Amino acid sequence: MKHLPNLLIVDDNKNNLLLLENILIKNNVNLIQALSGSEALEKTIGIELALAIIDVRMPKMNGFELAKKINEKRAGDKVPVIFLTAVAFNESDVYEGFESGAVDYIFKPVNTHVLKSKVRVFLDLFEQKQLLLESAARIKKSEALYHDLVETSQDLIWQCDAQGRYIYLNPSWEDVFGYRVEEMLGRKFYDFQDSGYARRDIKEFARLIKGKQLKGFETVHVGKSGNEIHLVFNAKLVRDENGNFAGTRGTAYDFTERKLAADAKIISEKRFKKLSSLTIEGLVLHKNGIAEDVNQSVLNMFGYTPEELIGKNVVKLLISEEGQKIVARKIKENHALPYEIEGIKKDGTRFPIEIEARNISLKDENKIIRAAAVRDITERKLAEKELKESEERYRGIIQNTSGCVAVYSSVDDGEDFVFVDFNPAAERTDKISRENVIGRKVTEVFPGVIEFGLFKIFQEVWKTGKPQHFPVSVYKDKRVQGYCENYVYKLSSGEIVAIYYDLTSQKKAEEELAKSEYKFRLLANNTHDWEYWIDPEGNYKYLSKSCKRITGYSQSDFYDNPDLFFKLVRHDYAARVKTHYHNEEEKKLPIFKMDFPIINRSGDLRWIEHNCTPVFDELGNFMGRRGNNRDITERKLIEAELLKQEGELRSYSVYFDTKVEEEKKRIAGNIHDGLGQLLTSLKMELLWVKKNIPKKNIQVNEKFDLMSKIIDSGVQMVQDITMELRPRMLDDLGLVATVQWELNEFQNCTGIKHNVLFEPKDFILDFDRSTTLFRILLEILTNIYRHSGASQINVNLSKKSDEIVLRVQDNGNGITSEDIKSSLSFGIIGIREKAKIWDGRAEIKGETGKGTIVTISLPF
Known about the structure:
- By secondary structure, this protein is of the alpha+beta class.
- The chain has seven domains: 6-136, Response regulator (Rossmann fold, 3-Layer(aba) Sandwich); 153-254, PAS domain (Beta-Lactamase), CATH 3.30.450; 257-383, Beta-Lactamase, CATH 3.30.450; 402-504, PAS domain (Beta-Lactamase, 2-Layer Sandwich); 527-631, 2-Layer Sandwich (Beta-Lactamase); 656-722; 731-859, Histidine kinase-like ATPase, C-terminal domain (Heat Shock Protein 90), CATH 3.30.565.10.
- Strand 16 and strand 17 form a beta hairpin.
């Protein structure tokens, strides 16, 4: 089943994503959508992308960063990226885009037709790439089939160079000749013949060089034990890419046994006396096409019985119509060389056959018959076809592979090597064209090859035939310089092949990584904290030296015993710490932090601040934890001391406020009872004097009235001071009545209306907490009047089983978070400090234009 290509679209605007989806949904693709760079990376893990369309301007991770991260985590070709942008770029932006994988830019608003056409182009390129990968897989499979056919064929398959030396022989040669293939390679074909056949075959070889194709050529060779081997050769000329003669190749088959059998049969059977040299596979004797005799091989080959062929016209029965015309012409010409035609089996199956026939005179019978040798060449034809296809595939693969490939032939028995092939990847890497290297010596093109050491490898591989790997090294001459890795092996043709890769960029990256790792280790080993990394099984992968300073145990102690750390944790924390290390849920937390005490090697208690984060690979698999342990013993001691001092300070504050309230109460009482009574007595005496003075004295009476008003003002001032110092009502009537009275006075003085709710309607609260809540209410009302601009307040005072809660809400401007946190908001600070005296809470919330809510909770 063919899968749809994956197309990634990323934009932080949902409307833009919807627009892109509507434009691209009909392109027969699988759309992967993301609103951010992190979401895009997560969704595309392990997914092959045909194209990515990314908005440049996104928060946190812009389009360039996302494209770079997508391509950094992928082997092979980069994912093509089309960037979307609403603004113009400068040159550095464009360069950064192309560095991260950009292939194009499209400006917003997006032109639908332009986007569709560009996306279609890259989808077509992706599909072509997939087809090439599938084609390469089929080529590899076909080459394997061709190799198996050649290596397992019973026929003799061979190739010679231009001098007639064997450069390839399949294993069947060992069975026929008795030599190992390695003993025959490099030797000329006539080295295995006696002088008579050698001279004849050399002439035939010269004719072949001139362009004549050789088919069914019969000759005799000599095996390792001196035995004669009767062979039939089929050969063709081989030319290089430039059309120059490069050698010959073809097939042969051994018909020695059949020849010997035919010779024996001729001795006993007269009519086969002249056929010994033609005993190939199938034998037919006919006169004018009418069969007089056939051997069993013909019967097996075509599926007939002797009765169905003897006396019948076998040319019409066994050969196709086109083949019959060729046979008639060959008979007329008395043609004796092998030729190929199409045969027809009894069941109608057509297959290729090779016929070699000649006229034989039977003097004792005073007649001439036609003797034909017939051979099924189906397998040979398949092998030839596969050989041709394999050569074409080889050329295609070499031309398109990303690795550099160079093929050399030896000169002067391996004293030097000449280029015979050089693929495009090698041209790009070595900055030289194929035309400038073919036919030239490797020491001429690459003068540094001897000092580099690769030339010696060439010679060893050429002599031994064993492949060798030349590890990554630096090659340098006046033209090129860089890291490369070479694989050298020898072809059956005697040529050697070097496959090499330019690893300069990779080595530079590795060097930078090594420097970075060195800096990290240097930093980690010298940091004050104890740095570590543990694998999923709980074993340490890395420990900094600081572990000994904190625990008294060395790195090797923890490497040898990973559970040592748990044994150091104080017993009341041990279970919790161990649970954390094995908790599957905590593996998902980005950062985990906890404090716990340990007992070090000296028996001292040390407090540890433990921080760790899980580590995952690119596929999301858990790889362990990385973190640090910090000695915070001194900080813990300071914190304990601060808590102690804070408690003491709070106790003192309670005591101080209590004493202040008591003093205010005493002073208010003295003023009210002393000065108030004194002013009252003074007014009474003044009234008595006024009554006893004649009313006719207007001036004196006016003076008495003025003095009376002054005394009344003094009385009012005494009452106001007394109320400010300590409302007597709070002591006499309690908190509920005092709050109600104060809110009424606040409304009369400011015009700000109020609603109040007491739950329950009346209750009694102790003196100290009542005073605190009343003082806090006064501070809240003052802030509302000064800053809020409110017209209405709602007050709720409720007494619960374990706490009393005062809640005040206004409809004013609403306090800002900056004012709540400001160190200059002394009123808010005072409210919080008063609540904290009783371990209480003061919560203040504001919403612009809707008002402020203050909630005070005091526990019992």
